[in-house]
Amino acid sequence: MIDETVEQIEEMQTHSSSVVAVRAARALQSLTDREFPAVEEYLRSLERNSHALRRANPSHASLHTTQRQIVERVRDADPDSLEDAQRETRVAIEEIVEQVETAKLSAAKRCADQIADHDVLLTHDYSSTVLSAIRLATEQGSEFEVYVTEARPRYLGRRMTRKLAEIDAVDTHHIVDSAAGHYLAACDRVLVGMDCVVDDVLYNRVGTYPIAATANDQGVPVSVVGSAAKLIEGGFAFENEFRSTAEVMREPADNFTIDNPAYDATPMRLVDSVITDESLVEY
Fold it and tell me: Were 56 and a residue from 9, 115, 118, 175 both cysteine, which residue would form a disulfide, CB within 3.0 to 4.6 Å?
């Protein structure tokens, strides 16, 4: 299960950062059903597998944070037996999963209170927290028109489009990334998720920066929504991921280079507000 989860994360089959963190945590649970000759052998296996999960996507701050919390929790418990170590692992996993899911829901609820009925929104990529916020707002009676970028090259925005299209109160439009500037003038707000915020820089799916810059030029506020755990003050160095060139072009690249970064860096001066489970911060 751990190898399968590592592969899913590497291939971006699991791309929402909260979902990544939960699946990675659940993957460690498979170790609690295995036999080990000693506690220390189990702890080494736990650390080794946790490291493999983290390396599957070095850019996911929430993945790194939750994996580190699980391993440290079990280590600090100083278990006397294999059974104690495995039980402590199961408890740590359940607490982390609940923490991630609760924070995500709380952030979505706070965001739902900030978007107004009949707002025209533009969102980029797929964010399960943004999706939850819009769904919660419609359950309270609001209606929206939403423009969703396709988020090339992986087209992750297509999933967002399909999910929003299932909501009767949302008039959903799917657009190519380069058309964002064309529609922004008609929008009330840009609403995006976040991978993390480090040192006054928002790291999110590539394409976020030009959308935020264009929105800033056109006077359209940009709101970022996600767990407060993604606001990193230290101890984490963001590492961008460069994806396979086949995602961009299947033909051979003769005499030219294909670059395919997964994320870009948006200065927080282009962001108007950050909405988390703990607070609403306006800039």
Answer: 9
